[in-house]
Design goal:
Oligomer: single chain
Distance between the termini: 21 Å
Largest sheet: 2 strands, antiparallel
Helix content: over 70%
Strand order of the largest sheet: 1-2
Shape: globular
Number of strands: 2
């Protein structure tokens, strides 16, 4: 059976053009406060988060190898979800609190390929952003991977698997992408609070402060990312239903 590769390529290039059109200027803006920056975490926490991330990378690498071998036609979709995550997570949205936030773009990849594959794609995205855009860092790559490329995709996958077929597909995709975005910042706030507990109120005092800082911009961003992900998923559903069925991502 032949797959409609012309139509899926059209979706890929249209998605990439839209993302680059909206995102290239913010992505090249001043890079401070994107992800957890280089040198910000104490060395012990850098080691801890790498230790958490590495098993997911190993499983994800094995799954990608098997996927590309068994279903080579999935490579274009792999590239698309990687580009989607790269551009969205490179957008810098200033916060009224003096910090900044950004979408993550990991929910779509989790729906299509599962959380293990997305841990690799998200890790690659974060590595390139650290090297090319000075967003995040190498020593904090493990921590940023855990928050954006592991915790977020896991939540998106759980929502997708738990709710598909039980409610409107559009709502399930929206919730999966939006909650993946939000959980990323819950985990990031947890990582920062563990590394820098408040001198008086301890971990919970520090955690609540970080959550307040992020919430101002992250909640509307999560809603926006959920809506955008629904649009992209619907485009794939219309133009590449065979690919979605092949991946088990058709609700």
């Amino acid at each position: 059976m032949k797959f409609p590769r012309v139509r899926i390529k059209s979706v890929f290039w249209l998605t990439l053009a839209l993302l680059l059109g909206f995102g290239i200027q913010p992505a090249l803006a001043k890079p401070q406060a994107m992800h957890i920056m280089e040198g910000f975490l104490p060395p012990v926490w850098c080691v801890v988060w790498f230790a958490v991330a590495i098993p997911f990378w190993v499983v994800g690498y094995i799954k990608i190898q098997k996927l590309v071998k068994d279903k080579p036609e999935s490579r274009l979709l792999l590239g698309m979800v990687g580009a989607f995550a790269f551009v969205l997570s490179a957008l810098k949205i200033p916060s009224v609190t003096g910090s900044s936030s950004h979408p993550t773009g990991t929910g779509l990849g989790a729906i299509l390929f599962g959380p293990a594959v997305m841990s690799i794609l998200g890790g690659i995205v974060l590595l390139f952003q650290a090297l090319l855009l000075a967003h995040g860092g190498l020593t904090t790559l493990g921590a940023n991977t855990v928050s954006m490329a592991i915790a977020g995709p896991l939540v998106a996958w759980w929502v997708w698997q738990g709710l598909k077929g039980k409610m409107s597909t559009a709502w399930v995709v929206f919730l999966a992408a939006a909650l993946a975005d939000l959980i990323t910042y819950v985990v990031t706030a947890t990582q920062l609070a563990l590394a820098y507990p408040d001198p008086v109120s301890g971990f919970f005092g520090s955690w609540s402060k970080f959550m307040v800082v992020f919430a101002v911009t992250q909640i509307p961003l999560a809603i926006s990312e959920g809506l955008l992900t629904v649009l992209i998923y619907n485009a794939l559903r219309s133009n590449a239903p065979s690919e979605l069925k092949m991946l088990g991502a058709e609700a």
